[in-house]
Amino acid sequence: MKLKREKWGSRLGFILAAAGSAVGLGNVWKFPYIAGENGGAAFIFVYLICIAVIGLPVLIAEVLLGRSTHRNPVGAFRALSKSKFWTAVGGMGVFAGFVILSYYSVVAGWSLGYIIEAIKGTFYDYTTTTSSGEHFGGLVSNVFWSIGYLAAFMVLTMVLVYRGVQKGIESGSKIMMPILFILLIVLMIRGLTLPGSEAGLSFLWSPDWSKISANSILIALGHAFFTLSLGMGAMMTYGSYMSKEGNIPAASTKVVFLDTLIALIAGMAIFTAVFATGQDPAAGPGLIFHTLPVVFIKMPGGYIFAILFFILLTIAALTSAISLLEVVVAYFVDERGWKRHRAVITFGIVIFLLGVPSALSFNLMADATLFGLTFFDVADFLAANILLPLGGLFIAVFVAWVWGFDKALIKMKVGAEAIFENSGWLIVLWKIFLKYFAPILIFLVFLSSIGILPKIINFFTDLF
Prior knowledge:
Helix 6 packs across helix 13 (286-298). The protein has one domain: Amino acid/polyamine transporter I (Up-down Bundle). It has helices at 11-22, 25-37, 41-69, 73-80, 84-120, 129-140, 143-162, 165-192, 198-205, 214-226, 234-239, 248-276, 286-298, 302-334, 340-360, 375-403, 405-413, 417-422, 424-449, 453-463. The chain is mostly helical.
């Protein structure tokens, strides 16, 4: 007898879980950093336009595919198309979730380990970013430290997914997301009260239109796409657990709003503290593990705020990780008839084992490279530069050109009757953006991510 498929217990449960999937490690440092380096408020304005044109339309389409079929990415495409190509596109999403979690959990393990480092007061031994960076390098070069925290983080992820959609993912999201938000507010208020914090606000909020270039627009486009966990099947899987009465456009808009709001609050929390303590805001990926430990020891109450920050960072990583594991689990439950517990344990272990070479890329396997890339770098490049952009591109093309708006809108209208009746122009905009703008812009993001677009631009620049 076929088991009854799980579903969300409430609309809030879906919104918090989907927002949790979107909110991850990148929100905490990447968005504020790229905003500050590319024009501050001017970049944020461009980014919001990109979210409206590419992020939100594709998010709605992906959730719609899941809710319409109540299946994982493979099952969703199979139910709506007889073509094996589109079924393979769904499989690509499952594979992307598998690959991303294998190396994402390595970095998440570092954030988990830094909670312990903060509690131990280790940061007080290092007063410069150089010494703090050396300490971080020593930790990740320790095989037992890296793999140990990778295993611990994967266990946390597996426990939540093992408990199911309502009792595990939804209940966990309802606890973790409010905690994450409260911690962010506390850290932001602390940052704003530090002497010299106004320089951080200026870095983030002062519009500098001279920094807006073709490259900064591409950066905004790319982040608008990647920040919402699009193209990896997570939102489609989460959408498949929605009830038929769910308002997809409204819920998707709330997810986008929460994702953007959290990124902006994180920016104020981090950069007010960074500038107030005289640290370098242009530290890039090293900002979290090199710069912030020094920031915390230089600010009053830094011991407590360091612990809170890395708890926050781990929660952000965990809410994203459970959505990635759920993509894989949902495929084997829906398509292969596996029981959830068996799928979680089996593929949680498999993903952990695949993550081990990524963890070893910073120590024992640091010299084992392919085209100059470590195993960690190869996995990251494959997922972020190829699988995700192609996944998002195919989703937009499928809904707009293959499935067709006539069928899609019938499904979308259920639960969203008020929007169709009172704000029909929004539906028209969604159709235009998804059919024309999103595929073209995502394709540009894809060309840029694999390094082809800059060569094309340089060719035409030299030509003319």
